[in-house]
Structure formats: structure tokens, C-alpha cells
Amino acid sequence: MTKRYIIGIDLGGTNLRIALFGLGFKIIDRKNLNTANFGQKERLIAAIVDSVNNIIENNRLIKNNILGVGLGLPGPIDVNRGVVHFFPNIPGWCEVNLKKILEKNLKLQVFMDNDANLMALAEYKLGAAKGSKNAVCLTLGTGVGGGIIIEGNLYRGSSFTAGEIGHMPINERGPECNCGGFACLESYIGNRRIMREAQRIFKRDEVSLEELSRMAYHNNKKAARIWSGVGERLGVALVSVVNLLNPDCIVIGGGLANAGRILFDKVEETILTRAMIVQARAVKVRKAKLGNGAGTIGAAILVKENIKMKK
Ligand SMILES: [Zn+2]
Fold first, then answer.
1. Which residues are within 5 Å of ligand 1 (an ion), measured at CB?
2. 8 A C-beta contact, residue 266 and residue 252
3. FRET label pair with 225: which of 86, 217, 240, 305, CA 20 to 30 Å apart?
4. Which residues contact 169 (CB under 8 A, 6 or more apart)?
5. Measured on CA atoms in the order 73, 76, 77, 79, is the torsion positive or negative?
6. For 66-87, what is each residue's pLDDT tens digit?
7. pLDDT digit string (tens) for 137-152?
8. Whole-model pTM above 0.90?
């Protein structure tokens, strides 16, 4: 019998990650490229096609060994048709039928979804939310993304764009957000906002998030106050999520999750003191387990689930 593999791709504003997996999601090979090197849409698509072909050849495989290719993409996607509506941080993409283009060029089956959804799928199947039934997963970085698992399935919503926790307003009025709304959670706890706050408080031109975590860890009161503020604002947003969805698990990943206990303690405390008592007791807050690999793993899981469904 032919041995089968899956290719998982995670396209981000910064990195293009390609990984080859066995059917049990064991990683066999991987490659990271810099998204910015490819500029226009056509060059980026060509880079994806080349990377898939290369990873197959480099591992002495043929197309027949590949069950399918999964892609995690940084924007709203029509999952059924495989159409990219647009990418907020990569210009030049508007209603692109990426599935069709890639399937024609690769002669392989292609499946795609939003990157935060695939991170949630990966954490649910193999990471911090394993064994959970209802989970909410967040990635904290420049943007704040989210994915929702309900009764063991990814909840996508009516146009596949559910889970945008970063764009839940947490105030009546507040800063304008690039989504067109204002007072979005992302404008309060996105990387840029935290760094601006740190620069103001420490009166310095640059304070990195790593430095800010380190300072808090060594009991710097000002740094601790910044993280506790971030934890509280995030906690307040999650109180709404907990009351609305009654999840048993909330997974927090992305760069900011590395701030560790100082952030997680405040999030947990805020949920415990402000969410409704039954919901608050049911939920565990956990740090994501799969790190940067979550996107490609989620993409591989997506392929396996789709192909299984069709059989
Ligand atoms: Zn927004």
C-alpha cells in the first residue's frame, strides 16, 4: 500500500511555513520562508507551489504519496469554495479562488481555513485543549485572533468568520480599529498598544515585550502593572465569552502568552470574580502547547478530516 503524507502550510504576514506530516501528524520535514520576499500575489502563489513541489521531491516522494495540502490563511476565507476574500496585512488579494489555482498547479486536493481556526483545531486535537468538548482558543500578537470549538467541532459561523474575539468591542467608545469598528479588544491588548504604553511609562523609545515580561518577572512594579492591566482587559472580554459559550477550556497562545503567570493569573482572577458562577467554575485557562507549529498542524488535520468525511 502506498504510504501517505499530508502537507500543512501556514501563511502569515511575516512567515510562510510549509511542513510535511505523516498521517498521525508526526512532522517529517519543514521549511520556513519570509512572506515579504514574494511581494505580489502571483509571486506568493508561485512560492507556495514551488515549496510544495520541493518538499515532496526533497523527501523522495511523488504526488501519489500526498493525501492533500492544507492551508491556514491570515484573513477571511470562503471555506467551501476556497476563496480568499482579502488579507488585512498582505495587500493585493481580493476574492481570489486560491483553491482552484493551487489544485490546478499542484494536481493535489487543497483545503483551507483561517489561521486562528486551524490553531484552535490543532490545540483541540493535539494540544492544550485535548480532551475538552467546548473550547475557545486565542492568539495574542500584533492582532488578536480566535477560534471556537463547540461540542467537539470547529464553529465557523454563517460566512466562516466566527471567532473574531479581537474585534469584540469592550467599551462604548474607544480607539478606532483597522476592522472599521472601534474600542475592539485588539486595540487595547495588541502588541503595539502594550509597547506604546511601556514606552510612555518607562520614558524610553523602545521597550520590547520580552524585556517587559522579564522586568515583571523580577518584580518591577511598573512592568507588573502593565501586564496586570493587559490581563484584566483580556479577562473582561473573556467574561463575555465564558458567559455566552460556557466553554470548559480557554487556550491562550501567541507571543504575549510568554508573559506567563503574571498575565494568566490576572485573566483567571478576572473570570473567577466577574463571570457567572457556574460558567466561571467550569472553565480552565491554559497556555497553548503547540507554539509556532500550530498553524501547519491544524492545516494537516483539516486535510485529514475533509478526506475522511468524503469517504
Ligand atoms: Zn476591530
1. 167, 177, 179, 181, 184
2. no
3. 240
4. 181, 182, 183, 184, 185
5. positive
6. 999 999 999 999 999 999 999 9
7. 999 988 899 999 999 9
8. yes
